[in-house]
Amino acid sequence: MRTRRLGAGLAALLLGVGACVTEPGTGPVPGGRCAAGTLDAQGSSAQRNAMEIWTRAYQRSCPGSTINYEPTGSGAGIKALVAGTADFAGTESLLKPKEREQADAQCSGGRTISLPMVIGPVAVAYRLSGVTELRLTPTTLARIFAGAISTWDDPAVRADNPGVDLPATPIQPVHRSDDSGTTETFTTYLADSAPGDWTLGADRKWLGRGGIGAEGSERLTEAIADTEGAIGYLELSYTRREGLPVARIRNAAGEFVPPSAQGAAKAVTTPGDGLTVEVDSDTRAAGAYPIVLVTYEIVCDRGLAPDEVPLVRGFLGWTASAEGQMAITDLGYAALPEGLRRRVAAEVERIS
Predict the structure, then answer these.
(1) Is residue 275 domain-resident?
(2) pLDDT (tens digit per residue) in 8-34
(3) pTM of the predicted structure, to 2 decimals
(4) In this structure, are 9 and 114 located in the same domain?
(5) Residues spanned by the domain of 44
(6) In the 3-class helix/strand/coil scheme, how is the chain assigned residue by residue?
């Protein structure tokens, strides 16, 4: 079984609100946790659309609160946290030992905690005139991004798509040019699922050669939409906003599955009573979608400025509430499993 264990960094931000928010389609969050003030955070662009829902709802229901979230990418978010310019950071990547040491130094008398908050499928989107349905095996996908397959009518692509009239259009792979947790998630999947065809390893930095680089999920989405023959990887909600078609990816059970919240949830487990999330790209569960990201909020457990504590706990409590999690499912995100959600919310309550 190929299982990817993910750190708990991004979710802390989202969990601490217990509060006073009413979002269309949700009820008010109990607890009266509205707080005034300003929080500045940045990081993962994969959770940008979730953050827009959460911040808009919280600020509308809690006058005097301002939540600024900049989708600068996981790497930039970690750097900002280490530099002390972000109140929390969102990332799909675990902190490296040196990064954790530097981030902990920003927590007076405390340490950083990494809490899972956002679960979502990484879609493989494309633009190819006349082709509305596309199926790809892990091997074909890896060979495309490794540069071993260069046209859409390659025999490997045709074998995945019997009966589909595929043109001889050159393939234009699009990747993130910034340090990206989505890139790490995607390349980890390729390395696990097609190790003979993807030999470049997994990292926040794109390790492939050639292709089109784009900074951030928004620009990557635009690059795919604007380029005939393009293919790229991004969190599902961006494809829905732009109306991009997405490929069905073959899972370990042999099914070609489209990205969805339900499919992503089937590839995720939360063993034990901690905050660990594992993504099993090799699960044979029916309907499982194998490329899944988990975004974490990294925040200090102690040592925040006294005037920041109520707002951090309030906002994160909202995002970690059952209502907050359900508020983002229409975008294609999967809600946290209930047991994990409760544990994350309890961890947020201990922030001081």
Answers:
(1) no
(2) 333 333 333 333 434 443 445 434 578
(3) 0.89
(4) yes
(5) 3-119+293-349
(6) CCEEEECCCEEHHHHCCCCCCCCCCCCCCCCCCCCCEEEEEEECCCCHHHHHHHHHHHHHHCCCEEEEEECCCHHHHHHHHHHCCCCEEEECCCCCHHHHHHHHCCCCCCCEEEEEEEEEEEEEEECCCCCCCCEECHHHHHHHHHCCCCECCCHHHHHHCCCCCCCCCECEEEEECCCCHHHHHHHHHHHHHCCCCCCCCCCCCCCCCCCEEECHHHHHHHHHHHCCCEEEEEEHHHHHHHCCCECEEECCCCCEECCCHHHHHCCEECCCCCCCEEEECCCCCCCCCCCEEEEEEEEECCCCCCCCHHHHHHHHHHHHCHHHHHCCHHHCCECCCHHHHHHHHHHHHCCC
